[in-house]
Structures are given as C-alpha cells and as structure tokens.
DNA sequence: GTAGTTGCAAATCATTTGCAGTAAT
DNA sequence: ATTACTGCAAATGATTTGCAACTAC
C-alpha cells in the first residue's frame, strides 16, 4: 500500500528533487492538522516543535504538495491561500458560515453527477471543481 | 424605473456619501466593460479617457459598488480580486478554462434547486454561493 | 563532489491608508 | 461652511526570490 508520504517521496524522486528533513516535517504537520490551514498557520504550528524551520520553506513545500497532488489550494473569503488534503477521488464541497467562519465539508453524489453533466454539455473536460455555499450556520442564526 | 446609476446614487445618499465625478466615471466604466475585470484592469481602461483618475479611487469605488450590491467580488485562480455586475436575482456559475483562461457563465435551475436543498439540510441560511468548474474548453482540448 | 535546499532578509504584488488639497453638499 | 473625496506616495500583508551556507544524493 502506498502512503501519502510514499507518494510525496515518489514525486520528489521523479522530479530530481530531494527528500529533506524539513519537507517530511511539513508534510507530517500538514497531515496531522485540521484542514484548511494557511501556510502561515501551519508555520506557526510547526514552530512549536521545530523552532528553526523557515517561513519560506513552508510556503515552498506547500506548493510542492499542491503540485504533487497531495494538497489543494483554496481561497475562501479572506486573503490567505488555504490548503486541504486531497481525499482520494470523492469530490467534496463547502458550507462556510459568514459569522463564525466555520467551514463544513460535505459530499453529494447528486450534485457531482449534475456538475459532470453540465461540464459535458459545454464540451468541457473537467479537471476540478469548487462549490462553496455561504450563509449562517445553525449556531449563528439569531432567533 | 431605477437604473443602476440611480441605485448607486441612492446608496451614496443614504449613507452620507457624495456623488462625485470619479465615482460616476468608474461606475460607467465598470458597466461598459467585460465582466470579471480586476480593479487594476479597470483602472488601466479608465486611464485612457481619464488620465487623471487615481488608482486608489478605483479600489475604493469598487468596494462601494460591492457594498451597494451592484457588483460582486470574485476570486478565481490568480491573485487579483475580480468584479462582476450583480444580475438581478438569478444565480449563475462559472466554467473556467485552465489553458486559455476563458470564463464562461451559465445558469442552471436544477443546480440551484439542489444547492438550496443542500443548505437547508444543514440548517444553513444561505446568503450566496460559488460554483466554479475548471477544465479545458473545447478550443483548448488537443485531439 | 554536485546539484538541490534552507533560512534569512530583501523584493514583489495586490491592496489599503495617511494626509494635504479639492469638491460636493 | 462643513464634511467627504481625491490623488499621491508610503504602508501593509501575503507570498516570492536572491543568495551564501548547508545537506541529500
């Protein structure tokens, strides 16, 4: 079985890039953190155990993770780029609370089927998709 | 009948803000340009006829247009914020070509109904939604 | 040993803001 | 008159890059 770490090592090898201590630390940190962290947030988390790790290295490595297909870059309302692990092949979507910022992931095969059909109707070869629903979560709705 | 220009004047008046020559020029320019322009692109267009208009004024005015409900801010792959006019109440979605950058808008009441239902299932009060399908447009698909 | 990598600081890019002069109310 | 607005230049915040020292191969 191939773990995500193997997948990354493999990608690095195939591209003449090196497996370094920092890259492994960053990948580990990314995988064991909540989803949708920004590079800066991940950097701050990693700092705790690895005070010597560099800001730029985190940015560079997150780009590598995105290139290797392990992570996806996302932009929600704010200015920062956020990363989420790529879950096998199931697409998922997001509900985002305008008030508390909570991000809820969900999947829906009906939606997925409909989007596929839509892309096909426009002769588009689909690579990826983004669906975000913004509103107020149950907790933030005043009565 | 209320035009978009009236809507903007109205918004300004109600908020103790002033109707200025620059704001009218920027609104006109925005309305007569292709959709999905960034503030910078709009600024460059406006410059041609109004060499004295300021960069910051365009940014500030685009924010006003967004606040007044005339325009919406959007983020596609790149770093810039893009603006599109708000078309009455029909929601629309985007197909974006990874190769040539073309942006195609479409509407789909089936998708819309499904999204409403999904939000309701999570007890979310929906405010707005984003759906983007990325891929290759017919022209960019190599055979 | 060679080529890629790191960490720092400086650079960049989009956007925002302070301020003195100007214009709308 | 008063208060908001403009345009410039300088500031900011996120991200990128140049470079000399370092580390994986």
The CATH class assignment of the largest domain in chain A is: Mainly Alpha
Helix/strand/pairing class of chain A, anyone? alpha+beta
- Tally the helices of chain A: 5
- How many discrete domains of chain A? 2
Round the mean pLDDT of chain A to the nearest integer and report it.
90
Assembly level: homodimer
Show the largest interface.
Answer: A-B, 31 and 31 residues
Number of E strands of chain A:
6
Strand order of the largest sheet of chain A: 1-3-2
- Most strands sheet of chain A: 3 strands, antiparallel
Low-confidence spans of chain A: pLDDT under 50, at least 5 residues? none
Looking at the overall shape, the CATH architecture of the largest domain in chain A is Orthogonal Bundle
Q: SSE order of chain A in H/E notation? A: HHEHHEEEEHE
How much β-strand is present in the residues of chain A? Answer: 15-25%
The CATH superfamily of the largest domain in chain A appears as Winged helix-like DNA-binding domain superfamily/Winged helix DNA-binding domain
CATH topology heading of the largest domain in chain A: Arc Repressor Mutant, subunit A
Shape of chain A: flat
């Amino acid at each position: 079985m191939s773990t995500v770490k193997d997948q990354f090592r493999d990608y690095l090898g195939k591209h003449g890039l090196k497996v370094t201590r920092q890259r492994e630390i960053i990948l580990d940190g990314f995988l064991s953190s909540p989803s949708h962290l920004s590079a800066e947030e991940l950097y701050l988390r990693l700092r705790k155990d690895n005070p010597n790790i560099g800001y730029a290295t985190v940015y560079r490595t997150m780009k590598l993770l995105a290139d290797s297909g392990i992570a996806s870059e996302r932009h929600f309302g704010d200015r920062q780029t956020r990363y989420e692990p790529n879950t096998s092949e199931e697409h998922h979507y997001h509900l985002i609370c305008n008030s508390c910022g909570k991000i809820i992931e969900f999947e829906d095969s009906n939606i997925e089927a409909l989007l596929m059909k839509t892309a096909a109707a426009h002769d588009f070869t689909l690579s990826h998709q983004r669906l975000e629903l913004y509103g107020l979560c149950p907790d933030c709705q005043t009565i």
